[in-house]
Amino acid sequence: MLDVKAHVAALGHLKTPEGSKTVLQEVEDAANALVKSWLVTYHDDIKLLPESRRAAYDVIRAGARDLEQVDIELPPDDRVDTVDAERNPLPAAIKHVLSDAEGNYPLDPKLNGWERQVIARETGRDAVVGWYRNPSSAGKNSLRLSYQQDNTWKSLQPDFIFIEQDSSGTLKPSIVDPHGGWMSDAMPKLLALVQYAQDHGHRFARIEALASAGASAPLRRLDLTDAKVRAAIRSANERGGSVQTLFADGGPSISY
């Protein structure tokens, strides 16, 4: 047994021609490919396992060399406040995926003006049949977009997911994310949405970033499924431009 261990250890230190992979790299590549293949092949079977068993596969995905796509698990129910601190009933919205028996969902008092404006506008549209307030914390119940900032992987959770039905009856999700353009993480998060829209935009009806050019300016949106808009955002980043400029009237954004 000792001889076998020594032989394996020696293989890991073998010198290879310049540009060629080492034995260790070849083994790691093969193992990575095999794990990815298994996760795809047995995806449906893994989904049927109890949550305690599925957690083991989440650990495997988290340890993968390359980022892995994972499914969002919507909670089967939710416990939310229906009154504020003074026991006054909270305003409610319709069409939430976890609405009560009357079709209402109490709105979190912490929602800001932009978020309330988005909910009111979108739920008033006939095409919208449902919506979900994406949790701000990264977890199994949230849509998470990975991005790098300062050589560190971070996670973006867009604010809202709306479900729309087209004229043929097909359902498609839309991402709508209001985010202050003056905040320090505004450009990295916007670029994360840009990359996600480029890679996965065909699966969505809309992917929109919302903001305004100033405190008193109206809310505007960037259509990130538009390649020209994505190019304008990347160009602004390369020039050191601000996100607020992108949302100014006359830029690539349009009214919301």
Q: From the 3D structure, determine the CATH topology of the largest domain.
A: Trna Endonuclease, Chain: A, domain 1
- Rounded to the nearest angstrom, the radius of gyration is 23 Å
Question: Could you say which overall geometry the principal axes of the C-alpha atoms support?
Answer: globular
Number of helices: 8
The chain-level structural class is: alpha+beta
Note the main sheet. 6 strands, mixed
Stretches with pLDDT under 50, minimum 5 residues:
none
CATH architecture of the largest domain: 3-Layer(aba) Sandwich
Distance between the termini: 69 Å
Order of helices and strands: HHHHEEHEEEEEHEEHHE
Question: In oligomeric terms, what are we looking at?
Answer: single chain
- Number-wise, the strands total 10
Strand order of the largest sheet: 3-6-7-8-9-10
How many domains is the backbone divided into? 2
| Range of helix content | 25-40%
What fraction of residues sit in β-strands? 15-25%
CATH hierarchy class name of the largest domain: Alpha Beta
Task: Describe the model.
With 256 residues, this protein is α+β, with helices and mostly antiparallel strands. The chain has 2 domains: 1-71, no CATH class; 72-255, Trna Endonuclease, Chain: A, domain 1. The chain contains 8 helices and 10 strands. It has helices at residues 2-11, 23-41, 43-47, 51-62, 113-123, 186-200, 227-238, 243-246, and strands at 92-94, 104-106, 128-133, 145-149, 152-156, 160-165, 171-178, 206-211, 220-223, 254-255. The strands form 3 sheets. It has a 6-stranded mixed sheet, with helices on both faces. Strands 1-2 form a two-stranded antiparallel sheet. A two-stranded antiparallel ribbon has the order 4-5. Helix 6 (186-200) packs antiparallel against helix 7. It starts with a helix and ends with a strand. The relative contact order is 0.07. The model has no long low-confidence stretch (mean pLDDT 84).
